[in-house]
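Technical note accompanying the year-one report. For the benefit of new consortium partners, we illustrate the data format agreed upon in the data management plan: each record pairs a sequence with a structure-token string. No post-processing was applied to the example shown here.
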Amino acid sequence: MTRDFEETIRAAGPVIDPPAAKALYAPLLADAPRGGAVVPDIAYGMDELHRLDLYLPLGADGPAPVVIFLHGGGFIRGDKADRYHVGHYFSRHGVLAVLPNYRLGPRNRWPAGAEDVSSVLAWARDNVAAHGGNPDHIVLVGESAGAAHIAAATLMRRFHPPGGLRIAGAFLASGVYNAELELLARSQLGIATPDPRNEAYFGPDFSAYREMSTIAQIDAEPFPLAISYAELDPIQMQAQAGELFARLVTQHGFQPQISVVRGHNHLSQVYSINSGDEAQVSI
């Protein structure tokens, strides 16, 4: 990344400021290269938010690998349209990108997000071949709340679609994996009380938070997995990435990759994709 951008991000510190991150990268993204054609607003379920956009791959030699990318938004906001640059990034690199919306809190509570991930995955298996994608090479990628939903959907077998998980891998960026930890360590982690995001999604019955914490409910067989957090993420994202990694390795037989995105905060790491001010993304 450029020195000016890094200095701006570091000066702001470990904040989650959507308008600031969007404004910082807006000039770069306005001139960013585009990928192939976009097929918008395909229904994958019955809810009004069960819609996805397809970014068709450029230059694919045969069936293209598929990435399903789930946006963040603290469980209560966010839209696939805000991550159009991610779709174009993958598209122009020969990947079919699937960007879904999903049900949000407080209208929809846990496990709505995990259920929607499973529905998108089932849809992709049945439909991506018609759009040039390879249904046998699907990678799930999520940021923030999107990472939390993908973690639950993949690491907890109850949410696997019919026929099993059968994915090429998953990538979790700066997610929430232990709602109970965030509840019990609010002062240490700097989390608001009441919490407008967690309580909107996980609900007001705090005695049930352990049962809704992915970290305590892992029962899936190991699959290729990468976990990351930003250098300037809030401390709870850093702690939970480490806890998830440690538990998967010591208790569940996984061998996940773990990495830190240098010089970025919770949102700049995502807005930088396809901006030219980015780390290389691997599939």
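Partners are asked to follow this layout when depositing records. The chain has one domain: 3-271.
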